[in-house]
Amino acid sequence: LAERLQGTLQKIKGKGKISEADVKEMMRDVRYALLEADVNLKVVKEFVKNVSERAVGQDVMKSLTPGQQVIKIVKDELTKLMGGEQSQISFSTRPPTVIMMVGLQGAGKTTTTGKLASLLRKKYNKKPLLVAADIYRPAAVQQLETLGKQLSLPVFSLGTDISPVEIVKQAIEHAKEAHNDVVIIDTAGRLHIDEILMQELKDIRAIKEPDEVFLVVDAMTGQDAVNVANNFNETIGITGVVLTKLDGDTRGGAALSIRSVTQKPIKFVGMGEKMDALEPFHPERMASRILGMGDMMSLIEKAQANVDEEKAKELEEKFRTQSFTFDDFLEQISQVKKMGPLDEILKMLPGAGKIKGLENAKVDEKQMDRVEAIIYSMTTQEKTTPDIINGPRKKRIAKGSGTTIQDINRLLKQFEDMKKMMKQMTNMQSKGKKKMKMP
Length: 439
Ligand code: GDP
Ligand code: MG
Description:
With 439 residues, this protein is an alpha/beta fold. The protein contains 20 helices and eight strands.
């Protein structure tokens, strides 16, 4: 979905003038992209209608950057589709808060129960109690107990011989005594929705009105997820949705449809199997992600605004003629720096969101500063013919730049490697040219 939409929007982006025909054509593409991503048909129709109406409006047509206005409208409407604001968890004013997890088998209920408990403890300072109320699936109780151990969180279970309703009753009593302010109930699922399951869930629900009933659905099942959500909402009533396995879902159809079909917000998204892979759902960020503005568009803008084309050409010429010096190196660094903090730039790369740990990555900007300092401490002669940099010179440069001889050596080696690489590249190019000329 992301790729398709990006392509479509890229076409319209740079246009200085937009006609109704342009908008129509674009909306055809958008419609197609959404349907292909398994977004609910009704939702698609509504979405296209809303965007079209706004896009052909007077304000957009007359604005200086109509292309970008249209993209903004698409993003706004996507955000709205997913609920606009991020929605909060409602905690009971009279603890314990009861959260019931429901959903089909394999959707990720048990995993999410653990993740959610861990998140509530960390972000909200809660003391959750996990309740093993799935007595049917083999080893379901054990699965939750293992998670509890792993997270050092208490799990309430009475084995598999006692009814789920009884288990939940006792669990809530136990929570009061043990001062657990949140009770998260991991219920049983089925492969398909059936009467018996629904009745059991209704019975559990009736014990004490839960503060939240979270339906856990697998994002990879697309429209099916939406149908399941509708069904659960109508039969037992849900307060929100947790969309799991979004890490594997490239289409995003479920995320886009669920809210507008069920009128229930997506509260969390599961981004992996690990216990910390649960995130609050942010409609706007999801819209950005879908539009691949993760954030390609602003990255391109940044690059265009800041990298001087003339200078880039000059550098290329120097690569070719092997007259690249430390001064040029310095110039290159400053060009990169102008684009902004490096880690910010990295995050904007499409797909970067999927690279584990990148969100916390800090690109070593200090390293760049050090390189700059070293080059500034060189004499003009040293910068153009680095071969003359011997021991005493290294010592002087290190002192002048507040670095070490090792730093200088590393930089000289990098510079040498770079020159070698350039030489190879230009050799390859000239060989290629000769070959082309041969009959
Ligand atoms: P339940 O039957 O609904 O309780 O489902 P489980 O919690 O047992 O999860 C079923 C499978 O889905 C397990 O292998 C989980 O590790 C996996 N799973 C759950 N949530 C996620 C998620 O957000 N991302 C990924 N990749 N796997 C998940
Ligand atoms: Mg389970």
